[in-house]
Amino acid sequence: MPDEILTLPEVAQLLKVAEKTVYTMAQKSQLPAFKVRGQWRFKRVDIDRWIEQQKDASRDEGRN
To answer: Which of 50, 53, 38, 52 is nearest to 7 (CA)?
Structure first.
């Protein structure tokens, strides 16, 4: 589903990190996120893109 919206616990599970980690990253704008009635939400496509960017950054660091 292209417009799939994920909750904070779903993103934490996807990234295999603690919910607090996702919360902190969202607050610091380190993850693409937005709030709906005070609760964090994430577009699946944005999270998938963010994951790919992290992979690319890791590969680039390995080359230096």
So the answer is: 38
* 14, 23 contact by CB (below 8 A): no
* Span 5-26, pLDDT tens digits: 999 999 999 999 999 999 999 9
CATH of 5-63, one of 1.10.1660, 2.60.220, 3.40.1000, 1.20.1070: 1.10.1660
pTM above 0.90, yes or no: no
At residue 54, what is the residue type? Q
